[in-house]
From TrEMBL:
It comes from Labrys miyagiensis. The keyword Nucleotidyltransferase applies. It holds the Pfam family 5_3_exonuc_N. Single-chain monomer with multiple functions. Residues 746-952 form the DNA-directed DNA polymerase family A palm domain. Residues 384-577 form the 3'-5' exonuclease domain. Its EC number is 2.7.7.7. In addition to polymerase activity, this DNA polymerase exhibits 3'-5' and 5'-3' exonuclease activity. It catalyses: DNA(n) + a 2'-deoxyribonucleoside 5'-triphosphate = DNA(n+1) + diphosphate. This is DNA polymerase I.
Length: 992
DNA sequence: CGGTTCACG
DNA sequence: GACGTACGTGAACCGA
């Protein structure tokens, strides 16, 4: 694989690859991908090397934009000792040390180059950029074309006729955050710097560069610099005539800091006459050394590329052993666990199929090392930076961009994101390294009460800078409960993408093992208790807004939160992958953040007049009932007090058969009162009715109007994504998942939920989704058949159990079968069923026995879940979401059987929850694709509520139904069809 | 702030 | 064999 050295000339094509900058980009690209690809089986980090090899191979094989190289050099930085440090000791002074996982990949990268039949080029005291510049200039002089493979802006100064830059596509094409390949010529340079390539250094000299710590002139950014250079021609002319500049501050700065500008220019200007140790003749491209490449790639365990090169070259893979020096020593390999299963396939609808069973063999070693690393860095509250200027903020923006990820947290005046004013925000780049940007802290001592505290950043400008981070597709935003911050930023018309949410990552790996709030996670995983919100803002009566908090205190609190979030992310990132939960997280959790934020910010319209009228009616009826109750009781008492009521009913009046609650009080639940009413007693009946009316009034008709947002005129609930043990959502403030529907009086409240003018509400709900899931997981042929044929499932159950025909069935018989069906889902017991149906326990027991005889698969399923939970401590949904039940180990039999019932119910409820989550994740795109403008407003476990323009309703209904019915696909083909009923009307009552 | 009750799936 | 009971939520109210 050797070719005779030959200098490039006319018609040749020289490729100069910036190996050093590529290493970093490949690394940050790799950590955003499925981590199982980022390590060799002995946990050697290789992700960046893999991406590097892919690009290297493509370049040698295909060239760039159809042109193949005659000369090719992969050029690296030799060490930190750039001659630039001699000019300016702080050059690149802010650079953090490279990530730990990247360090071993530096030498591997050079090994890769050699293995492919090339020579890595590097030279002491010079950066890769200088070598590239020198080779570039030599080649152009000799008449050759040059392609610089890099995206580094510092190389843009080299672009000229015959020289282009090429930014290769990053990583795997479908991977998140990957960029397409891109050619950079004069036009692109002009777009970035506002000048032609030969003037780029002058612009950089003025604007400086925070990532390399090039100072530039204070107060001058790229825009201003470009304008000045274009006006005055070049840097020296500008500095000579600086006195002419009109803007006072700018003029002074240019005069005062002319020296800085000249040093800066020297720092950014690339050296084009390096005395090369590797002569340009040696860059001659020899073609791929397939054998060497395969040996290397085998040792790295990059199977896809290994195979591809073998196929291309016609070599037999088995003939080539892995590179001896690099392969895993045999002794290690024998104990190394098997590699995890292949990654999920991406299907055409964009939702990945879940990976196989949990990667049980994956060592926890990585997680442990991450954890140890995190705890090793102490929390130092006073080390956090308070950002007091836009320049300081810009530096953080630049660092975030360079790093590719940043933890982010907003501080506001309210827990309600839609009523909150942004007071400040914090960022964290690495453990212990965080800042807070105060925007709107108010000085209470100010006599006029609204004075702004000193030392803050202009909020409008700061949000512009923040937008550069939050909307940058190449920067991963990391938050804890990011839905909140997404809503806050949404109010400023700023989007947040891409993102990770540590609360949700915790939920997928630790669902059921405690809550997922930040303070709790910090204590649990980092052994550190962060400053509590109440310590900063007080609580109850003494609660103050965050804008009243002194900035120093605010920094300690807010920056710490970002620091904690970043550390938690590093930990959960490793755990989510190690525990095989990536697909669950990415398909069932993460997409819901924006989906729910959108739903919450839309809100739903309510008719306050209807509610006010109902409140009046309920009040009147309740007052009448209350008078009658006092009359019947013979005394006035607080009807709303179960204690007083119990004393009257079972004490004073001496009604027999009273039951006590766990605390020894008389139980007065509706069930008990209704039993008494059935015995002909008037008082309990009236109390039941009174309770219903006062419940409807206080919880709904009185309360709902107080939730109307004054800005939108609508009601905005808040959904919690990580609150339940099963994967369901929960809704609060107000809870719109428990709006009455079961009674006629209650349903009236639904008529107050209305569509905006010109629109209708669409309600689409899954029919019997949990029973369908049960039919699937327990594999019950009769149930499956009944769902296939669309027959009445409860009637079928009754017919099967009691041997009566479906036609003309006694409603009582059907009701019993229905109760049993639901009981099964809840982990049935004879006691519970007896209670539900008000029948003797023996009778209930007999029904259950009969049921199990007819549907033996049900009993198998229940036993299976109990055993599984006992063995693993968790059960799973059909998509693989885990739900932990640590209390399954309990010695207390009653507690244990409680957990067993949970273990039976959870996969059913949880799978149904997963299905509707999948539907929600896809819904927006499906509607847009169909050209429809319907918007999702609410989710009620098995129902989605939309608002749609009247003229689009007919077209919307089938789209919604299709997405919901197909939500399990393609990950899973259920054994039963899913059925969705969708209707539209002007209010929720009629649509439902 | 825990207990009780009741609205929903 | 004991043990308390259907599964999952959130809100209002009482009373200490």
């Amino acid at each position: 694989m050797t070719s005779a050295p030959r200098a490039p000339g006319q018609g040749d094509h020289v490729f100069l690859v910036d190996g050093s900058s590529f290493i970093f980009r490949a690394y940050f690209q790799s950590i955003n991908q499925d981590a199982r690809y980022n390590y060799r089986s002995d946990r050697l980090p290789t992700g960046a090397v893999r991406l590097f090899c892919n690009v290297l191979h493509k370049m040698i094989k295909e060239g760039v934009m159809g042109k193949k190289p005659t000369h090719l050099a992969i050029i690296f930085d030799k060490s930190e000792d750039s001659f630039r440090k001699e000019i300016y000791p702080d050059y690149k002074g802010h650079r953090p040390p490279p990530p730990e996982e990247l360090v071993p990949q530096f030498p591997l990268m050079r090994d890769a180059v050699r293995a492919f039949g090339l020579r890595p080029v590097e030279q002491i005291r010079y950066e890769a950029d200088d070598l590239i510049a020198t080779y570039c200039v030599m080649s152009v002089r000799a008449g050759a074309d040059v392609t610089i493979v890099s995206a580094d802006k510092d190389l843009m100064q080299l672009i000229q006729p015959g020289v282009v830059m090429f930014d290769p596509a990053s990583g795997d094409q479908k991977a998140k955050g990957s960029r397409p390949e891109r050619l950079i010529g004069e036009a692109e340079v002009f777009e970035k710097f506002g000048v032609t390539p030969d003037k780029v250094v002058d612009v950089q000299a003025l604007a400086g560069d925070s990532t390399d710590n090039v100072p530039g002139v204070p107060g001058i950014g790229v825009k201003t610099a470009a304008q000045l250079i274009n006006e005055y021609g070049d840097l020296e002319s500008l500095l000579a005539r600086a006195g002419e500049i009109k803007q006072e501050k700018r003029r002074e700065n240019l005069i005062e800091h002319a020296g800085l500008a000249r040093i800066s220019r020297e720092l950014v200007k690339l050296v084009t006459d390096v005395k090369l140790e590797t002569p340009i003749e040696d860059l001659i491209a020899p073609g791929l050394d397939a054998k060497g490449a395969i040996a290397f790639l085998k040792a790295m365990e990059f199977s896809t590329l290994t195979r591809r090169i073998a196929e291309d070259s016609g070599l037999n893979l088995d003939d080539i052993p892995p590179d001896e020096k690099l392969k895993i020593p045999d002794s290690d390999f024998s104990v190394a666990p098997a590699r995890p299963a292949a990654k999920a396939v991406i299907d055409t609808t964009g939702l990945p199929v879940p990976a196989g069973p949990a990667d049980a063999g994956t060592p926890a070693a990585l997680v442990e090392s991450v954890k140890a690393g995190l705890i090793a860095i102490p929390f130092k509250t006073d080390s956090y930076e308070t950002i007091g200027s836009l320049e300081a903020l810009d530096a953080w923006v630049a660092r975030a961009r360079e790093q590719g990820y940043v933890a982010f947290d907003t501080e506001t005046t309210s827990l309600d994101a839609l009523q909150a004013d942004l007071v400040g925000f914090s960022l964290a780049l690495e453990p212990g390294h965080a800042c807070y940007v105060p925007l709107r802290h108010r000085d209470k001592a100010d006599l006029f009460g609204g004075g702004t505290m000193a030392g803050q950043v202009d909020p409008v400008e700061a949000v512009k800078r923040l937008r550069l981070i939050l909307e940058d597709p190449s920067i991963l935003k990391i938050g804890q409960n990011l839905k909140y911050d997404t809503l806050v930023m949404g109010e400023q018309a700023v989007k947040v993408a891409p993102y990770d949410d540590t609360m949700l990552m915790s939920y997928v790996v630790d669902g059921g093992r405690g809550n997922h709030g930040m303070d709790e996670l910090s204590v649990r995983h980092l052994g550190h208790k962060p400053i509590a919100f109440s310590e900063v803002c007080g609580s109850g009566k003494s609660l103050i807004g965050f804008d009243q908090v002194p900035i120093e205190r605010a920094t300690a609190y807010a920056a710490e939160d970002a620091d904690v979030t970043l550390r938690l992310w590093l930990l959960f990132k490793a755990r989510v992958v190690a525990e095989g939960m990536t697909t669950i997280y990415e398909t069932l959790e993460r997409p819901l953040v924006t989906v729910l934020a959108n739903m919450e910010s839309r809100g739903i319209m309510i008719d306050r007049q209807i509610l006010a009228r109902l409140s009046g009616e309920f009040a009147q009826s309740a007052a009448r009932l209350e008078a009658e109750i006092h009359e019947l009781a013979g005394e006035t008492f607080n009807v709303g007090s179960p204690k007083q009521l119990g004393d009257i009913l079972f004490g004073k009046m001496g009604i027999p058969g009273g039951k006590k609650t766990a605390t020894g009080q008389w139980a007065t639940s509706a069930q008990i009162l209704e039993d008494l009413a059935d015995q002909g007693l008037e008082l309990p009946r009236r109390i039941v009715n009174w309770r219903q009316l006062t419940k409807l009034k206080s919880t709904y008709t009185d309360a709902l109007p107080t939730y109307v947002n004054p800005k939108s005129g609508r009601v905005h609930t808040s959904y919690s994504l990580a609150a339940t043990t099963t994967g369901r959502l929960s809704s609060s403030e107000p809870n719109l998942q428990n709006i009455p529907v079961r009674t006629e009086e209650g349903r009236k409240i639904r008529t107050a939920f209305i569509a905006a003018p010109g629109c209708k509400l669409i309600s689409a709900d899954y029919s019997q989704i949990e029973l369908r899931v049960l039919a699937h997981v327990a594999d019950i042929p009769q149930l499956t058949k009944a769902f296939d044929e669309g027959v009445d499932i409860h009637a079928m159950t009754a017919s099967e159990m009691f041997g009566v025909p479906v036609a003309g069935m006694d409603p009582l018989v059907r009701r019993r079968a229905k109760a049993i069906n639901f009981g099964i889902i809840y982990g049935i017991s004879a006691f519970g069923l007896a209670n539900q149906l008000s029948i003797p326990r023996e009778e209930a027991g007999a029904y259950i026995k009969k049921y199990f005889e007819r549907f033996p698969g049900i009993r198998d399923y229940m036993d299976r879940m109990k055993a599984e939970c006992r063995a693993n401590g968790f059960v799973s949904t059909i998509f693989g979401r885990k739900m932990n039940f640590p209390a399954i180990e309990s010695k207390n039999p009653s507690e244990r059987s409680f957990v067993e019932r949970q273990a039976i119910n959870a996969p059913i409820q949880g799978s149904a929850a997963d299905i509707i989550r999948r539907a929600m994740a896809r819904m927006d795109q499906a509607l847009v694709k169909a050209g429809l403008s319907a918007k999702m407003l609410l989710q009620v476990h098995d129902e989605l509520v939309f608002e749609a323009p009247e003229e689009e309703v007919e077209a919307t209904l089938p789209v919604v139904a299709r997405v919901m019915e197909g939500a399990a696909l393609p990950a899973l083909a259920l054994k039963v069809p899913l059925q969705v009923d969708a209707r539209a009307a002007h209010n929720w009552e009629e649509a439902h």
